[in-house]
Design goal:
With 150 residues, the protein is of the alpha+beta class. It is built from 4 helices and 5 strands. The strands form 2 sheets. A 3-stranded antiparallel beta sheet has the order 1-2-3, with no helix packed on it. Strands 4-5 form a two-stranded antiparallel ribbon.
Length: 150
Amino acid sequence: MAIQEFKATVSLKEGLFVEANARGFTVQMDEPEQLGGTNKAMNPVELLLSALGGCLTITIAAFSKAAHVEIEDCKVHVTGDLDPDGFLGLNKDVRKGFMQIRYQVEIVSNSPEEKIKKLMKMVEERCPVSDTLKGVEVIGDVNIVNNKSS
């Protein structure tokens, strides 16, 4: 299968409130009040945790048939440790992002435990978001549009 390019555009709406668009779908993000936002939506790091949980859950569902596992219900609880002092520039020695991310999968199934464990090994090997979080090059560029009248 050919490499596919996925895209998203994020626009600043007001204060720290932003809106992301991808394939016609919209997600809003903000920061809690204690970080300068208005608390109208999840913040980006909570959305990142949600993306990991969503990808793990979708990967479980996508490969459950191949693993011969019947899924009655599935939830993924995701937790991450982050010190805001890094992002806020209050401590240059503190990492800006997560120091650790942990997840716990809760599967309701009557399938044998051995098959569920094989499914989870497959999920851990194939989850794109989990793989990305293990390290990927991030490249940025800036396009400055000057609206100043001369």
